[in-house]
Amino acid sequence: MISDNSSNIAQQMLANDHPSLPKRSFSFVKTQAEVPLTIAVKAVDESGVVIDKHVACERPLTVYLNWRPIVTLMTLGAKPESLALGYLKNQGFISDVAQLESVIVDWDVNSAAVLTHEQTADLEQKLSEKTVTSGCGQGTVYGSFMQDLDGIQLPTPSLKQSTLYSLLKNINEYNETYKNAGAVHGCGVCEADQILAFVEDVGRHNAVDTLAGDMWLAQDRGDNKIFYTTGRLTSEMVIKVAKMGIPVLLSRSGVTQMGLELAQKLGITIIARAKGRHFLVYHGSENLEFDVNTNSDK
């Protein structure tokens, strides 16, 4: 059930979570009850000893657009309103932030309903065009997902190797749920060596959609940003980061063939297998200044 003081909660969330949001008639409505990200369990180790551990929570969240069910995502549930908005935006179902009316999250029924004044008459056609993907936590994209890629113009980034090393070191301070329970991916929006926002979820696509939702609401530009993920760089990840306007994609995992080809087409600098002082630039090495003498490390 939605709480009686939902309007006050919405105003407080709007002010605290999105201080740069343009003033307009838009609100979050949410039950007061938050959901836990991990739970305590008992486990038996290799010596037969019973130990206290934590496991990551996983729960369904059905996303509605103007009360039409669109998809059910498996998620930790940390930022359901941003996840719902980012998913709908990235899939091409909504595009005009000024037309948003509200996001209603109700964990009693595991739902997030996005209400908008934007035209959604072609919703059924978009929903009929599905592609099963490799995305953990999601696994399906719609025909509208590939729209407008030709119109994306990303700036040419400039990045120092020393800054990259500093960023990778700073990222180690995050991944709180992973350190506590494992079983999650993490994504971050970064500027130089600073992490501006970091999200963990059971699927890497949930994490990137959540960050995309936050950036879209704040109308924040991505041209001076770096996107970091613990997951592999597939075509979906490349497209979503391109739609966020971010020209650098950094991962501790690898890159797929289609992900690389799209990055080359869209002009995204791809840096993969990045951990500690090791990385591989698969595209855009000319945008990286190699200002660190790595011979001393060998």
TrEMBL record:
<dbReference type="GO" id="GO:0006777">
    <property type="term" value="P:Mo-molybdopterin cofactor biosynthetic process"/>
</dbReference>
<feature type="active site" description="Cysteine persulfide intermediate">
    <location>
        <position position="136"/>
    </location>
</feature>
<dbReference type="GO" id="GO:0097163">
    <property type="term" value="F:sulfur carrier activity"/>
</dbReference>
<dbReference type="GO" id="GO:0005737">
    <property type="term" value="C:cytoplasm"/>
</dbReference>
<comment type="function">
    <text>Required for formate dehydrogenase (FDH) activity. Acts as a sulfur carrier protein that transfers sulfur from IscS to the molybdenum cofactor prior to its insertion into FDH.</text>
</comment>
<dbReference type="Pfam" id="PF02634">
    <property type="entry name" value="FdhD-NarQ"/>
</dbReference>
<keyword id="KW-0963">Cytoplasm</keyword>
<comment type="similarity">
    <text>Belongs to the FdhD family.</text>
</comment>
<dbReference type="InterPro" id="IPR016193">
    <property type="entry name" value="Cytidine_deaminase-like"/>
</dbReference>
<dbReference type="GO" id="GO:0016783">
    <property type="term" value="F:sulfurtransferase activity"/>
</dbReference>
<protein>
    <recommendedName>
        <fullName>Sulfur carrier protein FdhD</fullName>
    </recommendedName>
</protein>
<keyword id="KW-0501">Molybdenum cofactor biosynthesis</keyword>
<dbReference type="InterPro" id="IPR003786">
    <property type="entry name" value="FdhD"/>
</dbReference>
